[in-house]
């Protein structure tokens, strides 16, 4: 008997190609790298010309150093600012660099910072943060929260507690909104930025400006890819370059076209997600919804599904908690930064080392930060207690807050603040100091954490 022919095997469907990585702005530079020093903020109309002239002034000092670096003294002379402000600028620059720079000492001076990083840092000082949308019912909250509040902008009409109760999160720019705003800023200014970084060679027009691979990598101060791919490896004109044979310089026009193409692709993705979010009534549709998974009973602890898996968060969010305690251990923290947002009458423990931390819009809350390697930013908070060990801290637009700090540098206090209190010395951090402080605030969890890892205090 002849066997009947078997059905031909069905072709296996081809696996879907992984989505392209997204070009994202570096939040650290925009969130922690802006200084309220008027002489560092140049008018947008003359920004490129002013920084080009500054480059010419600083180039001899960078060349004399032999490694392209400028120190606080040279920067102070070129900008006509006090030396302490120049040292502060270089110190903040060091804190927001994408990679550690061992040549910058603890005081922000040392051999100085790379001239290209200094120019990028000064350029974004002109960036203006996205303004929150006005509350739809401002008169309804004005009778509770005085209109003459110290909080500026949106929070002048809405207190942190009302911000939680009125579910007004949708009136505050989301992380996606802010990244769209930052990418749009870079899209507008990228031509000037590349011209500022480029080297001049013999040629005409666009061919006279070129960027080396090393200079191109310095753009990582402003942007990065969602999958962690380096810029030079993602760019076709520098990919797979032989380390023993440096890649030839590329025209600035070609680099500009490539970056704009990636920015447009990312903006399309963000805009699509923002449109989908606005069409949904669930806050879980927010692209960067809170990652408040420490309390499973909390109504907003779910993590949304993102269509593009190449997009991933580099921050952990603890948001919207009221009258509860939240503990985040190292296993709960994703990425190198943590954000505590809009919490009321709660105690938040972040028992994990991170590089950056933000506390925003909280009231009547105690926030304990284990060890922050670079910068803490506390903004628009009321009656908040901050217990933290960090390298630097910036406090903006807060009232009636108490700060128990162990920091390496003097706190930077800006904006409209009222009745701030730092009751203990901020320098000379040691374990006995922290042990007495932690016992005073009844925090045995943090005490055990720091006793087990005392080196985290020596940031």
Describe the structure.
It holds the Pfam family TBCC. It is found in: Cytoplasm, Cytoskeleton, Microtubule organizing center, Centrosome; Cytoplasm, Cytoskeleton, Spindle pole. Belongs to the TBCC family. With 459 residues, the protein is of the alpha/beta class. Among the domains are: 182 residues, no CATH class; 137 residues, Pectate Lyase C-like. The strands form four sheets. Strands 8, 9, 10, 11, 12, 13, 14 and 15 form an eight-stranded parallel beta sheet that branches. Strand 4 and strand 5 form a beta hairpin.
Shape: globular
How many angstroms separate the termini? 82 Å
Low-pLDDT runs: 137-157, 163-170, 281-312, 428-434, 436-459
Radius of gyration: 24 Å
Q: Mean of the pLDDT scores?
A: 76
Q: How does the helix and strand content classify structurally?
A: alpha/beta
**SS summary, helix count:** 13
Largest sheet: 8 strands, parallel
Beta-strand share of residues: 15-25%
Helix content: 25-40%
The number of strands is 15
Order of helices and strands: EHHEHHEHHHHEEHEHEHEEEEEEEEHH
Write the topology of this structure.
Elements: E1 23-25, H1 27-32, H2 47-65, E2 69-70, H3 72-79, H4 83-96, E3 113-114, H5 115-123, H6 138-142, H7 160-165, H8 175-197, E4 199-200, E5 209-211, H9 213-217, E6 223-225, H10 231-234, E7 250-251, H11 252-278, E8 315-319, E9 325-329, E10 337-341, E11 347-360, E12 366-379, E13 385-396, E14 402-407, E15 412-414, H12 431-440, H13 444-452
Parallel strand pairs: 8-10, 9-11, 10-11, 11-12, 12-13, 13-14, 13-15
Antiparallel strand pairs: 1-6, 2-3, 4-5, 5-7
Helix pairs in contact: 2-3, 2-5, 3-4, 8-11, 12-13
Family: Belongs to the TBCC family.
Keywords: Cytoplasm, Cytoskeleton
Main location: cytoplasm
